Amino acid sequence: MFEAFDATLLARIQFAFTVSFHIIFPAFSIGLASYLAVLEALWLWKKDAVYLELFNFWKTIFAVAFGMGVVSGIVMSYQFGTNWSVFSDKAGPIIGPLMGYEVLTAFFLEAGFLGIMLFGLNRVGPRLHFLATVMVAIGTLISATWILSANSWMQTPAGFATNEAGQFIPVDWWAIIFNPSFPYRLVHMVLAAYLTTALVVGACGAWHLLHNTAPRRARTMFSMAMWMAAIVAPIQIFAGDQHGLNTLEHQPAKVMAMEGHYHSHPDGAPLVLFGIPNSAEKRIDYAIEVPKLGSLILKHDLDAPLAGLDTIPDELHPPVAVVFWSFRVMVGMGLAMLGIGLWSLWCRYRGTLDGDIWLHRAAVLMGPAGFVAVLAGWITTEVGRQPYTVYGHLLTANSIAPIEAPAIGASLVAFIVVYFLVFGAGTFYILRLMARLPRDTMPELDEGPLRTAGVTPGPATAKPHGGHHGS
């Protein structure tokens, strides 16, 4: 049934599907790991049991999300060898080490301390346990650093040469890792992860406030989440603007597609708010635009000229409609986050943060907004890079493995079925966990030493039977 389809298009759809499922879990776990570290730090500092109860509540959710993120990421790695083996051969000398560094640094760090964070509070004591939580949080950030460095190199390649076999070989690793778009994309993605987590935590707290369950814990998590939204959303908008300026410098075609500029504007470009891209006629139908505002945003000058897609050959145009709309979804979600953050500040000022039902309802509705924004931003970035895998150097059509469309289509169908069953069940379980109350009691801490054999000492009244325990 897939014989009439293009193999490259099916491979792109398959990778887009798997990466879309994968990215929502790291985006959540990166922010949640840092949130757990903040909760435990507040508990150690203030000695308030509510922070430990919230820590225990969210650490279970983190464990499930982290596990699903790891599993979904493994599938993507296999696709480099199955559907994209030519890309792996040509870009492997650069992409391979970067992804290997992610495993050697971030994944090993997370794996080494995750068990202590999840199960070791009563065994290692609160201070060492806090260190483990911080290490897990740092590990998630290091993981994001390496993955975004690899992906950013594909967007703005630097520090490489090409050998006689057509492979990209490293010349300057510093230039490769810290390529021109990497700092902007790292800041933008980490802030997006923090906002995503804040909105989920805020939605959970608002839901419990609306149902009048665990009011003190719900108020605490809701207040913390709204502080994060109010502070980070404006910073994210500024970071996104800087990222856009960097993209205009290094990937102008992507910005042209984002803005819907089919034609050049020598006397100042408008900002197209909405419209329907018409690539056949090379225009935006039913456009709603603000004259010259596009030049003001991108060039900080109302009359600054902006080039359009008419300066680029048609075969090098990215898919304008997809990029145009995904960019607007991302910006719309960002403005909504800014709005709810400002709303929460107003309610906080009036002393109604805990009692404003409409704010709580809005927070519940905004729970998935971070995931939507992350997916929309990722689509804008990746589709806007087309028709290249390595921007300006390797076309996507020349990166595909010699594999037939029916084979890719069959595996795509299998992925869709399995992913919706497995990760759908995992997501449903996470939502069930969020609907439950945080634990009411704080476990007693045992800061005493443990036997290295792995057996916890029994009660003081227990009599030894002789010999050594454990093996």
UniProtKB/TrEMBL annotation:
GO molecular function, one term: electron transfer activity
Its membrane topology: Multi-pass membrane protein
Pfam families: Cyt_bd_oxida_I (PF01654)
TM stretches of this protein: 20-45, 57-78, 98-121, 128-148, 186-210, 222-239, 322-346, 358-379, 408-431
Gene Ontology cellular-component annotations: cytochrome complex; plasma membrane
GO biological process, alphabetically ordered: aerobic electron transport chain
Similarity comment: family membership: Belongs to the cytochrome ubiquinol oxidase subunit 1 family.
Name of the featured protein: Cytochrome bd ubiquinol oxidase, subunit I
